[in-house]
Amino acid sequence: MILRGKCHKFGNDVNTDYIISGKYKFKTLDMNELAKHVMEDLDPDFYNKITPGDFIVAGSNFGCGSSREQAPLAIKYAKIGAVIAKSFARIFYRNAINTGLPVIECDTDKINAGDELEVDLSKGIIRNLTTGEDIPIKPLPEVMIKILNDGGLIEHFKKYGTFNF
Amino acid sequence: MGKTIIEKILSQKSGVDAYAGQIVVADVDYVMGQDGTAPLAIKSFKEMGGKKVFDPEKVVFVIDHSAPSPNEGVSRLHKLMREFRDEHGIDFHDIGDGVCHQVVPESGKVGPGSLVVGADSHTCTYGALNAFATGVGSTDLAAAIISGKLWFKVPESIKFVLKGKLPKGVFAKDLILYLIGDVTADGATYMAAEYTGEAISDLSMDGRFTIANMAIEMGAKAGLMEADEKTFAFVKEHGGRDFTPVFADPDAVYAKILEYDVSELEPMVAKPHTVDNTAKVTEVAGTPIHQAVLGTCTNGRLEDLRIAAKILEGRKIHPRTRLIVAPASRKIFLRAMEEGLIKIFVEAGAAVVTPGCGPCVGTHNGIPSDGENVISTANRNFKGRMGNSNAFIYLASPATVAASAIAGEIADPRPYF
Ligand code: SF4
């Protein structure tokens, strides 16, 4: 799978309250509605700046805080192609894979705001088209590759009725 | 090779001789969802083709985050949860029963050696009972509700050895804030924290829950303790069945062993907007406070209410400050009434609200205004956490919160002890 898009850069410890505030998430299961408020506390106009396929690029511990699955879903429904970070909080990481949002661990110091990126998931490489640099991706555990390939955990269960690894 | 507590529990529940780094599929003993996460889990359950719950006695939904419902949207989601209960006969706690992380331990269904998943990040709280309990998302929750299983990567563990005795006026909350400040918000990511030592054995179960509750604030998957007489007494008091405690082997392998002497510890405060942004109370004393909050799954237990009441008894809160009290459960609320604590709070000028999450997560019950400072016994002070990103949240112990409510500014509680 090859993804292409522009980078929106954030810092370390972007928590789930910043991704989607509790004041919205408890109200509705309409993810298109939640998507409009994605990252609002860090950048009030963020939703309007997204071109479908763009990347969120961040430092370490992305998605720390609550277990709300609305966080990766809001990002996915805002049409972000993938989240790229130095590291992820574990619940967010699981939730992203389960809901089919690609999450990529790599050295994000080599990516600047606005850079154009090409992500080759099967080769495990990010090509920074702006700087010309190649950045290796940390591989996913096999269980997660299986779930992603099935299109998320819901599809996996639809197919097998239970866990099938 | 020896095993840590979590390696042992995951081995027992998966039937695999498991060590850190391995991936296992394990049986779960109890599965919990709350009103912020269960509705999405119900949606996933349906989309997955789920027809039946694997065991209705092992699944519980709790309405605590927005209880009672503040608006129509939330009411619709609560209704969805109640309909699921009616259809599947699962355990259920409706509004007023309390915060999930207090009602689950009080249900007697979780104890030493249990494996629990909850769609709430502070599910790690039950680690105080020697259980492996961890937070998951709604889709993982739905998978567990259907299959009674979930996959786990066996984590490495960090062992915290806590020596010495806590000084007067210094509590479990101060200790855990200190530890988080020291190891930072992602210091234990992908790992389990094991807490041991004299300072832990000395704590009541209420104090231990506070410590285990905040393991996630250092990124940990779980915060575990060994079981002792206090653990068994707690489980027995709440009608729990026989559980088999799990001890770490002496030759277990840890990612790190960190030793601390707690005997010089001072009351601690986490400053806005991260939990690891900690300071001694003396460094922030004098900061004006507009709202004080006593409650939540971190510090809304009976011992917490008793400590705060000891300070508030016969006194009035500062005119600048409002105080909101939310007992962690209906049981605690009742005990606090019997002991006269609620009367003390109300006479001091507090607003007592429904047992549950209270104002912790910004859905209702006390949303601060722009530029206001809040001091709370909760576990998170992220920007916008309480429903307004222009407010400032400080975290502290029940004693510090009570002392600050009286002073109208952050105050050291030690003179009261
Ligand atoms: S009290 Fe706060 S931290 Fe605890 S479960 Fe409720 S919202 Fe979450």
UniProtKB/TrEMBL annotation, chain A:
<keyword id="KW-0432">Leucine biosynthesis</keyword>
<protein>
    <recommendedName>
        <fullName>3-isopropylmalate dehydratase small subunit</fullName>
        <ecNumber>4.2.1.33</ecNumber>
    </recommendedName>
</protein>
<dbReference type="GO" id="GO:0003861">
    <property type="term" value="F:3-isopropylmalate dehydratase activity"/>
</dbReference>
<comment type="function">
    <text>Catalyzes the isomerization between 2-isopropylmalate and 3-isopropylmalate, via the formation of 2-isopropylmaleate.</text>
</comment>
<dbReference type="GO" id="GO:0009098">
    <property type="term" value="P:L-leucine biosynthetic process"/>
</dbReference>
<comment type="similarity">
    <text>Belongs to the LeuD family. LeuD type 2 subfamily.</text>
</comment>
<dbReference type="Pfam" id="PF00694">
    <property type="entry name" value="Aconitase_C"/>
</dbReference>
<dbReference type="InterPro" id="IPR015928">
    <property type="entry name" value="Aconitase/3IPM_dehydase_swvl"/>
</dbReference>
<comment type="subunit">
    <text>Heterodimer of LeuC and LeuD.</text>
</comment>
<dbReference type="InterPro" id="IPR011827">
    <property type="entry name" value="LeuD_type2/HacB/DmdB"/>
</dbReference>
<dbReference type="InterPro" id="IPR033940">
    <property type="entry name" value="IPMI_Swivel"/>
</dbReference>
<keyword id="KW-0100">Branched-chain amino acid biosynthesis</keyword>
<dbReference type="InterPro" id="IPR050075">
    <property type="entry name" value="LeuD"/>
</dbReference>
<dbReference type="InterPro" id="IPR000573">
    <property type="entry name" value="AconitaseA/IPMdHydase_ssu_swvl"/>
</dbReference>
<keyword id="KW-0456">Lyase</keyword>
<keyword id="KW-0028">Amino-acid biosynthesis</keyword>
<feature type="domain" description="Aconitase A/isopropylmalate dehydratase small subunit swivel">
    <location>
        <begin position="49"/>
        <end position="104"/>
    </location>
</feature>
<comment type="pathway">
    <text>Amino-acid biosynthesis; L-leucine biosynthesis; L-leucine from 3-methyl-2-oxobutanoate: step 2/4.</text>
</comment>
Automatic annotation (TrEMBL), chain B:
<dbReference type="InterPro" id="IPR015931">
    <property type="entry name" value="Acnase/IPM_dHydase_lsu_aba_1/3"/>
</dbReference>
<dbReference type="GO" id="GO:0046872">
    <property type="term" value="F:metal ion binding"/>
</dbReference>
<keyword id="KW-0028">Amino-acid biosynthesis</keyword>
<keyword id="KW-0411">Iron-sulfur</keyword>
<keyword id="KW-0479">Metal-binding</keyword>
<keyword id="KW-0004">4Fe-4S</keyword>
<dbReference type="GO" id="GO:0009098">
    <property type="term" value="P:L-leucine biosynthetic process"/>
</dbReference>
<dbReference type="InterPro" id="IPR036008">
    <property type="entry name" value="Aconitase_4Fe-4S_dom"/>
</dbReference>
<dbReference type="InterPro" id="IPR011826">
    <property type="entry name" value="HAcnase/IPMdehydase_lsu_prok"/>
</dbReference>
<dbReference type="InterPro" id="IPR001030">
    <property type="entry name" value="Acoase/IPM_deHydtase_lsu_aba"/>
</dbReference>
<comment type="pathway">
    <text>Amino-acid biosynthesis; L-leucine biosynthesis; L-leucine from 3-methyl-2-oxobutanoate: step 2/4.</text>
</comment>
<dbReference type="GO" id="GO:0003861">
    <property type="term" value="F:3-isopropylmalate dehydratase activity"/>
</dbReference>
<comment type="function">
    <text>Catalyzes the isomerization between 2-isopropylmalate and 3-isopropylmalate, via the formation of 2-isopropylmaleate.</text>
</comment>
<keyword id="KW-0456">Lyase</keyword>
<dbReference type="InterPro" id="IPR006251">
    <property type="entry name" value="Homoacnase/IPMdehydase_lsu"/>
</dbReference>
<dbReference type="GO" id="GO:0051539">
    <property type="term" value="F:4 iron, 4 sulfur cluster binding"/>
</dbReference>
<feature type="binding site">
    <location>
        <position position="297"/>
    </location>
    <ligand>
        <name>[4Fe-4S] cluster</name>
    </ligand>
</feature>
<comment type="subunit">
    <text>Heterodimer of LeuC and LeuD.</text>
</comment>
<keyword id="KW-0432">Leucine biosynthesis</keyword>
<feature type="binding site">
    <location>
        <position position="360"/>
    </location>
    <ligand>
        <name>[4Fe-4S] cluster</name>
    </ligand>
</feature>
<feature type="binding site">
    <location>
        <position position="357"/>
    </location>
    <ligand>
        <name>[4Fe-4S] cluster</name>
    </ligand>
</feature>
<comment type="similarity">
    <text>Belongs to the aconitase/IPM isomerase family. LeuC type 2 subfamily.</text>
</comment>
